[in-house]
Write a structure and sequence with these properties.
Elements: H1 12-26, H2 31-41, H3 52-65, H4 71-82, H5 88-92, H6 96-111, E1 126-127, E2 134-139, E3 145-153, E4 159-160, E5 162-171, H7 178-183, E6 203-205, H8 209-212, E7 217-223, E8 238-240, H9 249-255
Parallel strand pairs: 1-4, 6-8
Antiparallel strand pairs: 2-3, 2-7, 3-5, 5-6
Helix pairs in contact: 1-2, 1-3, 3-4, 4-6
């Protein structure tokens, strides 16, 4: 995820959380339901100690501004600030004091009375440009490549996000050969894995336009047939962020099979 300053929303993760919460409210969801949907969509991010604090801070700040902040979310965000969770990236860049000053302002804000609930304007939803059946590469921070098979797109006011299978293929060179691609199975996340991981092969990848166009993803011009064309519902898939693919999921899959 990209960070470009010390402000609360100078970060891709924080901006995505803010946009998703506003979208949920604009669709008529109650505050608790809107909060839960955001937390579900960022479940993979919440397992990352560097990224999880950004989710809680952005969620609390956005809910407060809209007059809908609940006590539990407020307290979790205040604890993030008090414990200096996720501060390493700013401290390493020599910006720790400036970031801490911004969070101190947020702490005072979250402790102050909220204004009455305000309406959220509907925003044009994100529409993925990835084609059905396309193989898209994901480059980890280590330089290792993963392969994602686009098996569908969501439909609704939030937008059309790609639904992907993570394939059993990794390499430090890309793209995969036709032989490798034909043999690569979709990875099914076993139920005995920790609760932060999804339990289906179908992953709704929550992206921004900026992320989809970044060099983290590569469009290789490769396609392979779908086993079946399905209309996916919310219960058929898990909502994840790109941070999930930084984990050694393929290695763990191979170790258990």
């Amino acid at each position: 995820m990209g960070t470009w300053g010390v402000g609360l929303f100078s970060d891709d993760t924080a901006c995505d959380v803010r946009d998703d919460y506003r979208q949920a409210i604009s669709e008529g969801l109650e505050p608790e339901a809107a909060r839960d949907r955001v937390l579900e969509r960022f479940a993979g991010t919440l397992s990352d100690p560097d990224e999880a604090p950004l989710v809680w801070l952005a969620l609390a700040a956005t809910a407060w501004k809209m007059g809908r902040l609940d006590d539990a979310t407020r307290d979790r965000a205040l604890n993030v600030i008090a414990q200096r969770e996720g501060m390493e990236r700013w401290e390493e860049a020599g910006l720790g004091e400036k970031r801490a000053a911004e969070l101190a302002k947020l702490s005072d804000q979250l402790r102050s009375p909220q204004k009455p609930p305000v309406a959220a304007r509907k925003k044009r939803g994100f529409t993925s440009t990835w084609d059905l059946g396309e193989i898209v590469g994901y480059r980890q921070e280590t330089g290792m490549w993963l392969a994602l098979h686009v098996v569908g797109h969501t439909k609704g006011e939030v937008g059309a996000f790609p639904i992907v299978n993570l394939l059993d293929w990794t390499s430090d060179t890309a793209p995969p050969t036709e032989t490798d691609l034909a043999a690569a199975r979709p990875i099914l996340f076993p139920p005995e894995w920790d609760m932060s991981l999804p339990k289906q092969p179908e992953l709704c990848l929550m992206l921004t336009r900026k992320q989809e166009r970044s060099d983290t993803f590569a469009r290789w011009g490769l396609h392979r047939p779908l086993l079946q064309v399905s209309e996916f519902t919310a219960t058929d898939m898990s909502y994840v962020g790109a941070a999930l693919f930084e984990r050694d999921i393929v290695g763990r899959w191979r170790a258990g099979n």
